[in-house]
Amino acid sequence: MTLPPNLLRAGLTQERIPEPCTVIIFGASGDLTKRKLVPALYSLARDRMLSRCAIVGFARRELPFVQLMREGVDEFARRRPVHEDLWGTFSSRISYQQGRFDVPEDYRKLRVHLEELEKAHNLPPNRIFYLSTPPSNFGEIVKNLGDAGLVPKDGPGYARVIIEKPFGVDVESAKKLNVELLRVLDEHQIYRIDHYLGKETVQNMLVFRFGNAIFEPLWNNRFVDHVQITGAEALGVEGRGNYFEEAGILRDMVQNHLLQVLCLAAMEPPAAFDADSVRDEKLKVLRSLRPVADEDVKLHVVRGQYTAGSVLAKRVPGYREEPGVPADSTTETYVALEMFLDNWRWQGVPFFLRSAKRMPKRVTEVAIHFKQTPISLFGAAAVVPNVLALRIQPDEGISLVVGSKVPGQSMAVAPVGMEFRYASSFGVEPPEAYERLLLDCMLGDSTLFTRGDWVMESWRYISRIHESGDASGDTALPAYEAGTWGPAEAEALLHRNGKTWRKP
Ligand code: BG6
């Protein structure tokens, strides 16, 4: 079924035009600004979702900023080719301020620049400071913004700060960063971004679960056998060997993106669809996660590291051969976890979560594996496991596998799929995650941003795994060849439970 254009338009615009504002990007010389942030703002403008928006880049180097942003929009914006008239207006409000993060004087200059800009373009003092810098700069930048009077808690206008990941590397560092931010800002001014929450399909998990009455009665330990969450990438570390060596896949993908996905899959219905109600429920999921005990870490956690192999028909080097990675690295590029939620709904249901680099293909999905029928009326061979897969990317959609009678004289049963595909049902390209999140921040809606207590709780779980591994002295790091679905030990994790990983 394809939706009529008027409904599609309503989905895109639904009274969500924010007040004019200025977005100030710290670390504007980085890749994110050119590839994601400015293209996202341009696409929003092209969709007429922004009334007026100025952009100020702030970084140390001298840069032909407007020209670089044009290249970024040309190459990466969802709405292409660039509309020249619109670009003319859009780019007339882009400017660049050269400055250092640790020099208070540069913040005073920024303040003057903003005041002049707002006057020239008749903009209210609504300001969003986007910190796309190394995390070690977050605290200092916020302090300097505070000292320069740039982030007042109350109006006129608003001052909001978006913080990129990673938010700390463990409980202690996240706590310290939170304290530094809260010395200057109120929690309602802080927008901790996780771009997975801006993905259409991730948001659709909420609509699928709580906008339909038929699935929720099944969504519990009476009907669900187990859940598999996969965040697989074909990519390697893409020149970020130094960063990845410190992070590993647990910090890079699991602590943030995949725990968010887990929360949306497992949470209770919120009392309302507002920031605090949704985030309260997500927090409860993390609080019910059973911590991994030292002696159990081997049982519930499998780590792995890729060796050279072939991905999508291309030879690729092993992780230890990547630039910036030491030859004796013990950083995991694969992790599989068996997790339990000690709560009323999910008691006894294992959640298997895996995430890795250099898998055979890119796929992010949540697969709900339902229990089998109490008896197999049509013979043991006819039992088809019912699996509901929420495909986050690529090939966004939802599929349900059920058993069906094979045409013919016997009662043979075979699996068949019921399919919903975004591309064919809606026929439009969904907005980019950063478009949604920037717009939400302009609207003051933090539902899809991460609250401080969630970050802390997620680190508690992840740090516990790191510590358990250290305490148990388990340094085993099984190898897997790039382009395969991970080490044999990860298969064993499921086989032990009489289950197997999906090969999506
Ligand atoms: C980032 C990680 O947060 O997410 C990267 O640092 C990873 O390592 C990326 O590749 C994955 O995002 P997406 O949207 O491509 O799934």
Provide a descriptive summary of the structure in words:
The structure is a single chain. By secondary structure, this protein is of the alpha/beta class. The protein has helices at 5-13, 31-46, 65-76, 84-92, 104-120, 138-147, 171-184, 200-210, 241-266, 275-288, 297-300, 422-426, 433-442, 452-472, 488-495; strands at 21-26, 53-59, 94-98, 127-131, 159-163, 190-192, 224-232, 301-307, 309-311, 314-316, 334-339, 351-356, 363-370, 387-393, 397-405, 413-421, 479-481. The longest helix has 26 residues, at 241-266.
Describe the structure in brief.
By secondary structure, this protein is of the alpha/beta class.
Low-confidence stretches: none
The hetero molecules present are: 6-O-phosphono-beta-D-glucopyranose
Kindly, what is the distance between the CA atoms of the first and last residues, rounded to a whole number of angstroms?
25 Å
Describe the largest sheet: 9 strands, mixed
- Helix segment tally: 15
Structural class: alpha/beta
How many DSSP-defined strands? Answer: 17
| Strand order across the largest sheet | 16-15-14-13-7-12-11-8-17
Residues in helices, as a percent range: 25-40%
Shape: globular
What do the pLDDT scores average to? 93
